[in-house]
Amino acid sequence: MHDETRNTTDSTTGLEPDPDTRDAQRFPRLADEMAERVAAYGEVEQVPTGTVLFERGQRGADFFLVLEGGIEIIDLDSDGHPRTIATHTRHGFTGELDHFNLRRILVSGLTVADSRLIRITRENFRRLVSAEPDIGEIIMRAFILRRVSIIQQGIGGVVLIGPSHGADTLRLQRFLVRNGYPHRLIDTDLDPKAAGLLDTFEVQPHLFPVVVSPDHQMWMNPSTADLADRLGLTESLEPGHVHDLAVVGAGPAGLAAAVYAASEGLDTIVIEGMAPGGQAGTSSKIENYLGFPTGISGQALAGRAQIQAQKFGARLAISRNVVSLHCASQPYQLELDDGQRVTARAVVIATGARYRKLDVPNYDRYEGQGIHYAATPMEGKLCAGEEVVVVGGGNSAGQAAVFLSRIAAHVHVLVRATGLAATMSDYLVQRIHQSPRITLHTETQIVALEGGDRLQQVTWSGRRDGSSETRAVTNVFVMVGAEPNTDWLHGCLALDAKGFVTTGVDGDGMPTSVPFATSKPGIFAVGDVRSGSVKRVASGVGEGSVVIQAVHKFLNPEAG
């Protein structure tokens, strides 16, 4: 399998392996002694040539180690014809990251010769990775690098056809990118291939965006949940199953809770409406997170945490929002927007917060059509060589301004305050002041948004002197304030005046010994959704890890 972008850091995993060692790590061969240990977790089979071992769309495929013969991995090319993307021979093994979950796999595998194989079921595969850490490390690294190649080469992926600046195109692309699903975008405004596709598929422009699968199924502007279901990214929930712990929200706090809960043996499920990462997942680079001296993108950090949680057995239910918490009796029930219910003995609320909207005429009209709440490489492509506006004085706004200054012609940072020092880390403040491509406008706010189908012009005004300025700006990044994602609680828990979950007190308002306990026993809140929390990735991770001790005490009070 050839990799045309070998030096590109993958946004999902954050890995940047040495190009000379990448192929050896992606398709390693286990030593004889390791192969013998692997055999203890499965069954040896003699398989004739041409036997299909697993197929695209299958869930929970078995893991195979080749002893003799070979396994060919195939997908479909753009014409629907099978193509070989890899061949595993002696002591090579099959699989990639979907072996850690129950999503539909992207490729098929069949024997290319009479072969002797070790077949390991999904349950025993998880035992192997946990019990044999040296082998598990080799497998994990290979799986991550294979997913990198799958994303970079679009293997097993879909084609997204639509205008790149369109709100629904961006919505679907953002979902695919943040969930690490391979895809290719054809911009109907710029790509000459789009006209041919219009004729070939008889698709009218008003039906865009369109998603086309490898077998040429077409989905016209699907909802995010519908797309997730069609791609097999969602996992079926078992009715009546009672989990030890349900984590609501897959930001840094929720993922940390999932990793520590699952690694300590709790039956854990994470429910997330969009993709792992939360608000932090939209950050282009976090440079003050411990252990990453050169920084790491929010999506890369979330991608690694998601893999860790799944490695230990946590399940992730994405593209499903919790609409109600039934907390009158235990175990608790979480009702999802598709009508399903998740039952759990304990609940950790980690739904975080969202950026506030601006009170400006036409604001709703241009959401997704020029107004963004994330500054990642995907959004960066939309404003290359143009002037952009970033609204906000926190770290997220600072990170966005610095990132965009490398892409845009100029970045205007607008804040209502007199400066940045009180709300932004000093290293970001200094970069903004020193950059010739960033201008800070203090005591300033947007007063007008104008354009046609998409944003074309922005006017801002000084609050002190009333002066105004109008610029040709088509992209505004809004990162101001925080509103808690607690609407779904419907009076179940005590909230503060701003809607954040009150913690550290019981149902009678008396202080408790558990700082993350809510007014209902067995329900905890961590991260940005918690009243009084520190809005930092590191603090969210810390809270998510520490809360599991309290979960254990609630589930097993006699254990002390």
UniProtKB/TrEMBL annotation:
The UniProt record lists the keyword Flavoprotein: yes
Bilayer-crossing regions: none
InterPro entries named in the record: cNMP-bd_dom, cNMP-bd_dom_sf, FAD/NAD-bd_sf, FAD/NAD-binding_dom, Ferredoxin-NADP_redctase_2, RmlC-like_jellyroll
Keywords: Flavoprotein, Oxidoreductase
Intracellular or extracellular location(s): Cytoplasm
Domain Cyclic nucleotide-binding per the UniProt entry, residue ranges: 26-146
SUPFAM superfamilies the UniProt entry points to: cAMP-binding domain-like, FAD/NAD(P)-binding domain
Annotated spans, Disordered: 1-24
Gene3D superfamilies: FAD/NAD(P)-binding domain, Jelly Rolls
Highest taxon of source: Bacteria
Keyword Ribosomal protein: no
Name listed for the protein in its UniProt record: Thioredoxin reductase
